[in-house]
Amino acid sequence: MALEQRPLGRTGRTIPAIALGCVTFGREISEDDSYRVMDYALDKGLNLFDTAEAYGGGNSQRTRLETMGVSDQREVTTEMSSSENIVGRWMQKRGTRNDIILMTKFSTGGSAENVHRALDDSLDRLRTDRVDIYKLHRPYPDVPDDETLGALAEEIDAGRVEVIGCSQHSAAQLRHALDTSAFRGWPRYEMTQPGYNLGLRADEKDLLPMCIEEEIAVTPFSPMGAGFFTGKYTPNHADIPKGTRFDIMPAHADLYFNDRNFRTVERLRNKAAEMGIPMTRLAMAWSMTHPAITAALVGARKPAHIDNAIAAFEMGLDPELRAEMSSWGDG
């Protein structure tokens, strides 16, 4: 199956309009289930895979949880393998390294020393000698952009990275990085990865318009609000279903549990029922149809989540309906 291809910044390359987020691997689903999801995604044309050194447990190693900009200092231990390890073993067993666009992120600091070390470690876990897209998992304001971007430029020159990008950057932070790259004559960030959904919309004002102007690919995470817009949560924290994303990562509630978002959920539920479609599909379609969005990341636990994303993309959204949905929660 062929998905619509869209520009990867100014690189001349393209990426599919839906990408597979691998955050669930080793944290919420087993390795065997992860393989089934990856097999299905590739068969459906989702050949852009997004992972990170922070995803999953890392073979019983203690791993700091980082998610959507929430500073959650808890540490956990898990017996499940890290996402990168699972993706690496899958590529090795299936012989699929050249069939996918592989992107990963580093979250342990922006110093030159750490950029090189983190990439070494990711390549080991991924069982490959290169990544197609390498991104900062978040901004590192304690390190000058010159140092981080200079180290990334060295990795591009060495052939271990093809394209660089960032995640969770504000418009001002991205602008500073772009200006630094232009001044130094270094490769620029060609992709950014913000959180974007019916409940996370702060980037509509500055970041998304800038990405359109600068031709930067936007691959938002959590188009479903980490599952919040499935409608399965109530304002009572004690009612969070066991095993769900909000159970495993309680900090998500800090972002989504508010009156505005619960009003939006009810309006989403009613509109989806009126249209005769799943509310998950309608919420996903809203996230996908902003003009700045290049490829929505789908953090699938099972193949049906991929089917829902494809159906949402193929459905599209009438501009009037999207405008109506954008007004939900305002009053």
Describe this structure in words.
The protein is α/β, with parallel strands linked by helices and 331 residues long. It is built from 12 helices and 12 strands. The strands form 3 sheets. An 8-stranded parallel beta sheet has the order 11-10-9-8-7-4-3-12, with helices on one face. Strands 1-2 form a two-stranded antiparallel ribbon. It has a two-stranded antiparallel ribbon with strand order 5-6. Strand 5 (63-67) and strand 6 form a beta hairpin. It is globular, with a radius of gyration of 19 Å. It starts with a strand and ends in a 5-residue tail after the last helix. Mean pLDDT is 91; it is low at 58-79.
Q: Output the CATH topology.
A: TIM Barrel
- Mind telling me the C-alpha Rg? 19 Å
Decide which structural class fits the backbone.
alpha/beta
The overall strand count is 12
The number of helices is 12
First and last CA, distance: 42 Å
Strand percentage lies at 15-25%
Which stretches are poorly predicted, pLDDT < 50 over at least 5 residues? Answer: 58-79
Query: What is the CATH superfamily label?
Result: NADP-dependent oxidoreductase domain
Q: Residue-averaged pLDDT, rounded?
A: 91
Task: Determine and state the CATH class.
Answer: Alpha Beta
CATH architecture: Alpha-Beta Barrel
Strand adjacency order, main sheet: 11-10-9-8-7-4-3-12
Q: How would a textbook summarize the main sheet?
A: 8 strands, parallel
Helix content: 25-40%
Task: Indicate the overall shape.
Answer: globular
> How many domains is the backbone divided into?
1
Q: Order of SSEs, N→C? A: EEEHEEEHEHEHEHEHEHHHHEHH
